[in-house]
Amino acid sequence: MRLAMIGLGRMGGNMSERLMKGGHEVVVYDRSADAIQKYVSLGATAAKDLGEVTAKLQGPRIVWIMVPSGKPVDDTIAQLTPGMSKGDVIIDGGNSNFHDTMRRAADLQGKGIEFIDCGTSGGIWGLANGYCLMIGASAQAFKLCEPIFRTLAQADGYAHVGPTGAGHYVKMVHNGIEYGNLQAYAEGYEILHASKDFKLDLHKIAAVWNHGSVVRSWLNELAELAFEKDADLTALKGYVEDSGEGRWTVQEAIDLDVPAPVITLSLLTRLRSRQTDSFSAKVIAALRNEFGGHAVKKT
Question: Does 178 participate in catalysis according to the annotation?
Answer without folding.
Answer: yes
